[in-house]
Write a structure and sequence with these properties.
Length: about 300
């Protein structure tokens, strides 16, 4: 059962509340907490002295470990389709600013996961995900890991990224706003030459790619007076892709619009059993100060100046 003040190093809690100077977060496993529903993990709530509302749909979560997948058709059983959301996760508060969750190898895909969230002053959440495939023979010889962030009634459902013009020399800003769920939904990088052959079956966000490409490993979106920036540290032997859904976050409380999902995914081609693979990224949540400020935050993270 969840506790209000988890003890450091104790593994029988379901969530923790962490704060730094300009950011407070509730981070938890797949258990319910008040209006937050069971079956969603990650950042339940995120607030700032500059914005009392959380950017993530209160029922759901941000940076939510959502799916595993391979080349086979998406499973019809929702508990298998959303396998990481439906398997137990232990949770430990490592220190005053850090929480770590662990999930044993799952039944269908055989992927073991470790999720580490660390708050850093003034308004950062550093996220490190480590997965170890424990099962051989996944369809297509690869596996994918998919995360969703359900955005709480934003005025603009889009997220933005840097692309390149036709001569591939000059970066420019692009807007990513898909028209329908599962349509042109996955955004690849300029350097992503990996062509995955998915078997015929029901559509999924990861099996539908956009003709657009990103040039730098980040995207941002606006929430009220704030900006939410997701930069990613490149890792060897893996590929990071972004994804978008205009309706993935469900209906707003007034049922007059849908909440979008701003998503990302890790692809591990030609994986080796029992070998760990990583994804490292940061959540920046701060007052909007223009695109120059976005780029400064991204460059600071990518260059390792925290």
């Amino acid at each position: 059962m969840a506790q209000d003040q988890p003890i450091e190093g104790k593994a029988d809690v379901d969530y923790v509340q962490l704060s730094v100077s300009r950011l407070s977060c509730t981070i938890g496993n797949n258990r319910a907490l008040g209006e937050h529903r069971a079956g969603y993990n990650g950042i339940f709530k995120m607030t700032s002295p500059d914005q009392a509302e959380t950017p993530y749909v209160p029922f759901f979560a941000g940076v939510n470990l959502e799916n595993f997948f391979d080349a086979a058709p998406r499973p019809q059983d929702r508990k298998v389709f959303f396998e990481p959301r439906n398997q137990p996760m232990s949770l430990v508060r490592v220190d005053a600013a850090t929480v770590e969750m662990h999930q044993a190898a799952t039944p269908r895909y055989g992927i073991e996961s470790r999720l580490r969230f660390q708050l850093r002053a003034p308004y950062y959440v550093d996220y490190q995900y480590t997965c170890i495939p424990r099962k051989s023979g996944l369809a297509g010889g690869f596996f994918g890991v998919f995360w969703a962030s359900y955005i709480n009634i934003p005025h603009d459902k889009s997220f933005y990224y840097l692309g390149k013009d036709a001569d591939l020399k000059h970066p420019f800003w692009e807007q990513f706003l898909t028209q329908q769920h599962n349509r042109d939904s996955t955004l690849r990088s300029q350097d992503d030459g990996l062509e995955l052959a998915f078997e015929e079956g029901p559509p999924a966000l990861w099996s539908n790619t956009s003709p657009q490409r990103y040039a730098m490993p980040f995207f941002y979106g606006r929430f009220r007076n704030m900006v939410l920036i997701y930069p990613f540290q490149p890792q060897p032997e893996t590929v990071v892709r972004f994804a978008h859904s205009p309706t993935g976050g469900g209906q707003s409380p007034g049922s007059d619009q849908h909440n979008p999902a701003w998503d990302f995914q890790l692809i591990v081609p030609d994986y080796q059993v029992d070998r760990p693979y990583k994804l490292q990224m940061r959540v920046v949540y701060k007052p909007w100060a223009g695109r120059g400020d976005v780029l400064a935050e991204v460059e600071k993270y990518l260059l390792g100046s925290h």
